[in-house]
Write a structure and sequence with these properties.
Oligomer: single chain
Low-confidence stretches: 13-39, 206-262
Number of helices: 9
Order of helices and strands: HHHHHHHHEEH
Radius of gyration: 27 Å
Length: 262
Amino acid sequence: MRRINGTALLIAALATTVGALAFPVWSYADRSGTGQANVAAGTVATKWGPLTAADRDLIVRVRLAGLWELPAGQQAIERAPTQAIKEAGDHLIVGHTDLDKRVRIIAAQLGVELPNQPNEQQQGWLRELTAASGQEYRYKFANLLRAAHGKIFPAIGAVRNTTRNTLVRQLASDANQTVLDHITVLEKTGNVDFDAIANDAVAGTTASPTGPPPPVPGAVAPSAPAAVPSGTPRISSSPSPGDPGTVSTGRPDPVDSENVLR
């Protein structure tokens, strides 16, 4: 009896050991690669392909961009301190009107809930623009919008590169071209402070991207470019009389010349 009990105990111990070894293999079989596990987290299946958390985030961010850039563009056209800023405002309105229609259709198809008003930071930027005037307004308009576009630009590229959803991929392509067009036309105003943008990117801050205060008229600014004096636009483009939704610049459209990620 004593020998039988010992044999039974040995068999039971071996069975327990084998079970302990087998259990983690079974329970972590789907974790062979942490990258795949991270991609799968928060992913839902759709008939257009998997929809990840990053995909949904881009859809929401595209919607948010239009919610504050459309009124900012309308304000720029109404104030029109320079022809270049008026042209930039027109591009904002045309670009985001079209992009907002697309993002609302795609969000409905994919079941993504969209915001109906700008977030708190964007509302603050709109208040800054409303309170500013003259040279300060030109500076804030160009730099608030240029910095915001510059920050979402790489995010669009990252989603465009990794998404497996055909609707999101097309939205990213459309958003990429719109953002590049807006970056280009904002830089044409001559008011973009590239030093402030570069310093903000290095610091990784989330502060208001207006950079330092605009230079005082007559003061020597060794690095940051001064704002364009009132009444002296850097370019002489004018809206096309035939189509209110287009702007004639006299040059190839920046989107066509920089057709990326298509």
